[in-house]
Amino acid sequence: MESAAQEIKTLIERITKADLPDRLRELVLIRLNQLTKLTNSPSFLPEFDSIVRYIDWITILPWSKRTQDQLDLENAKKILEQHHYGLEDIKTRVLEYMSVMKLKLEKGESKDIYRAPILCFVGLVGTGKTTIAYSIAEALGRPIARIPFGGMGDPLDLRGQSRMHPEAEPGKVIKALRDTQSKNPVILLDEIDRVTEQGRSSIMGVLVELLDPKQNYAYVDHYIDFPFDLSETLFIATANNTTSIATAVMDRLEPISMPSYTDQEKIVIGQKYILPATMKASGLPEGALKISDDVWANIVRPLGYDGGIRTLERNIDGVVRKVARMLVEGKAKEVSVTPENVKTFLPQ
Questions:
Q1: Are residues 31 and 78 in the same domain?
Q2: Which letter, b or e, does each residue of 43-76 get, where b requires 16 or more Cβ atoms within 10 Å of its Cβ?
Q3: Maximum average pLDDT range among 3-17, 74-88, 148-162
Q4: pLDDT tens digit string along 281-327?
Q5: Which of 70, 197, 292, 309 has the most CB atoms at less than 10 Å from its CB?
Q6: What is the 3-state secondary structure (H, E, C) of 210-276?
Q7: Cα separation of 316 and 299, whole Å?
């Protein structure tokens, strides 16, 4: 069992050098020293495998690693404008939040964390709830992780399983921290109203702790079984509606309505944002596709009303694909979509 003893010694060295809270390091070293006495026991290998998996997890977490915030308001405004048309209220709130952070940094009070409002974007599908969260993260210079709540039915998905279970692993919150490698990331709680009825009350209970600054500074995942400070994390939530969200959770959120787009707004979004991005993504040369102003009303609403821009995105994508095929087959070098030929390019 010399090899087993050597393996444990290697783990002890690894834990000693790792960036861990002192108390957690102490607890793991005690467990490793106890394991040394079990090298001849039949339970040694399962216990050894379990502690190795645990050490892999705790040594990869960003216990003290932070991302440096970018607090350049002009750059943030440029990023928000670049990706989103309108939404002035949301952009204003983000810039106000960054302004407060910058003032505190200049006064040397950056360690005194400013509790950002936990925004909850509420609106129909396709109104930009998820994408605005990614733009906020980009504007702040923070990494972002998304936790999808659609169909979630077990609070253990968020909080993890105890290591007593053979296939236990941490919950989605700890996995988000591992993926972002920062203790102050943006974590997107996507579609928190779409959890299952069976797990709703227990999942909402975990959300209350996650979103409460008086509790989340010592968030405990069942697998890690040690408090992790989430007080510097910026949480952003999205929902289609708020009727199924617990009152205690809503009390900790700042709901912002994401309005449905008017046809005119969709035309601007299609011309300035979606069409150039889709052409670039498909490899279509610049100038290969031109769409007449008279056609955009048909592209926006060919089959009826849609509050978001998903239908608009699909229609533009379909037009670009048809033009790409025409170019590849040598039928055209430039294509203009006009009221006369628009039926060729749009679904009927």
A1: no
A2: ebeeebebbeebbebbeebbbeeebebebeeeeb
A3: 148-162
A4: 888 888 889 988 888 888 887 555 566 778 888 889 989 998 898 88
A5: 309
A6: HHCCCCHHHEECCCCCCEECCCCCEEEEEECCCCCCCHHHHCCCEEEEECCCCHHHHHHHHHHHHHH
A7: 7
Domain that holds residue 183: 73-258
DSSP state of 329: T
Specify if 108 maps to a domain: yes
**Residue 109 buriedness (CB in 10 A; 0-12 / 13-18 / 19+):** exposed
pLDDT in tens, 207-238: 999 998 888 899 999 999 999 999 889 899 99
Query: Which of 60, 17, 109, 116 is CA-nearest to residue 228?
Result: 60
- Do 182 and 54 share a structural domain? no
Question: Do 116 and 230 belong together in one domain?
Answer: yes
CATH code for the domain in which residue 150 is found: 3.40.50.300
Q: What is the pLDDT of residue 307?
A: 62
Residue 31 CB partners (closer than 8 Å, separation 6+): 51
The residue with greater pLDDT, 63 or 117, is 63
- Do 278 and 219 sit in the same domain of this protein? no
Q: Which residues, at least 6 apart from 265, have a Cβ–Cβ distance to it below 8 Å? A: 85, 86
Backbone angles phi, psi at 131, to 5 degrees: -70, -30
The per-residue pLDDT for 110 is 53
| R_g of the chain computed on alpha carbons | 26
How many folded domains does the chain comprise?
Answer: 3
Of 239, 247, 238, 157, the closest CA to residue 201 belongs to 247
Q: Structure tokens of 161?
A: 């399983």
Distance CA 69, CA 151 (A): 33
Q: Which of 230, 258, 286 is the last residue of a domain?
A: 258
Q: Which of 233, 258, 283 is the last residue of a domain?
A: 258
235 within domain boundaries: yes
Shared domain check, 250 and 180? yes
Longest dimension (CA), the chain: 84
Place of tokens 């915030």: 69
pLDDT at 169 (0 to 100) = 93
What is the tens place of the pLDDT at every residue in 40-97?
Answer: 777 778 888 889 999 999 999 999 998 988 888 888 888 888 777 777 877 888 888 8
